């Protein structure tokens, strides 16, 4: 097999993979622009329809979309900022400082990966009741202010990316823990922070189970919980549901397009070794 043939085969596989990955999003847009009766056709209709404006009006009339969007933006942005700060601080301490109990604490941190997420729902709800936070956005933000995955990921990143010699030089210059963190560590781990920030924002934006449990005030619902109200006991209006899903995805796409160039640029810089 010649190099040209291998190249064409590789490009063909990549194109096929891209098409398969993009098809669910394309199908969501098709369903959002058609009526429910068109969606139930067989064979299925694969072209855009003219019902998008009507479906948008139905969604906005059914739920408080903009209020839920605002709540979700507040939760996602605040959670992401807190996770980046606390996780990077903890990761720096685990990676570059030797303190009593470090191995045991890190082992406990790793052990939390083996616990099912649903196992913490009931104890977490009891804690929120005791604190009086049920029905408040604080119940979503504070418990998610730090997570084991972010600490583990950044600990490995800092361990490999931040040279000990640079930190030793900073200490000789009189830099303390926070000065080393701000002036040395943060600039070096920007690619890792960018990845963790995007990952955390998307996870907070799409979270459904925990907000469904702790949010009881209709004015405090997040977007995913509000979209769940589009389901009807008399039947599923797929056109309305897919329109709401499309509206919830657009901010994520905009965020990726806005930060993708900087994210890729930071990764490229991190790959260059002086």
CATH second-level architecture of the domain at 63-229:
Orthogonal Bundle
Structural class: mainly alpha
Please, how many helices?
Answer: 14
Any idea of the CATH class of the domain at 63-229?
Mainly Alpha
How much is the radius of gyration in Å? 23 Å
The best one-word shape is globular
Extract low-pLDDT stretches. 270-274
Order of helices and strands: HHHHHHHHHHHHHH
Number of strands: 0
How far apart the termini lie comes to: 38 Å
Helical proportion, percent range: over 70%
Domain ABC transmembrane type-1: 69-259
Subcellular location: Cell membrane
Membrane topology: Multi-pass membrane protein
Pfam families: BPD_transp_1 (PF00528)
Plain-language structure description:
This protein is an all-alpha fold. The protein has a domain at 63-229: MetI-like fold (Orthogonal Bundle). 73% of the residues lie in helices and 0% in strands. It contains 14 helices and no strands. It has helices spanning 3-32, 36-39, 52-62, 65-96, 102-111, 121-131, 138-141, 148-161, 164-172, 177-188, 190-206, 209-214, 223-228, 238-271. The chain is globular and about 70 Å long. Mean pLDDT is 83; it is low at 270-274.
């Amino acid at each position: 097999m010649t190099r040209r043939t291998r190249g064409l085969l590789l490009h063909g596989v990549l194109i096929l993979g891209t098409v398969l990955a993009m098809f669910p999003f394309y199908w969501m847009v098709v369903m959002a622009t058609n009526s429910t009766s068109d969606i139930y056709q067989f064979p299925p209709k694969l072209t855009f329809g003219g019902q998008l404006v009507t479906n948008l009006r139905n969604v906005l009339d059914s739920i408080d979309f903009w209020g839920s969007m605002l709540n979700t933006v507040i939760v996602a942005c605040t959670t992401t900022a807190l996770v980046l700060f606390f996780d990077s601080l903890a990761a720096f301490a685990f990676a570059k400082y030797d303190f009593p109990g470090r191995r045991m604490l890190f082992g406990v941190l790793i052990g939390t990966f083996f616990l099912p997420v649903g196992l913490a729902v009931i104890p977490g709800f009891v804690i929120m009741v005791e604190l009086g936070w049920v029905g408040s956005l604080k119940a979503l933000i504070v418990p998610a202010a730090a997570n084991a995955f972010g600490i583990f990921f950044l600990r490995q990143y800092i361990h490999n990316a931040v040279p000990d010699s640079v930190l030793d030089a900073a200490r000789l210059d009189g830099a303390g823990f926070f000065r080393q963190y701000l002036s040395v560590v943060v600039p070096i781990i920007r690619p890792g922070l960018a990845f963790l920030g995007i990952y955390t924002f998307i996870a907070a934006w799409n979270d459904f189970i925990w907000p469904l449990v702790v949010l009881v005030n209709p004015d405090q619902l997040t977007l995913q919980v509000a979209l769940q109200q589009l389901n009807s006991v008399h039947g599923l209006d797929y056109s309305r549901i897919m329109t709401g899903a499309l509206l919830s995805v657009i901010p994520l796409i905009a965020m990726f397009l806005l930060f993708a160039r900087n994210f890729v640029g930071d990764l490229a810089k991190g790959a260059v070794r002086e």
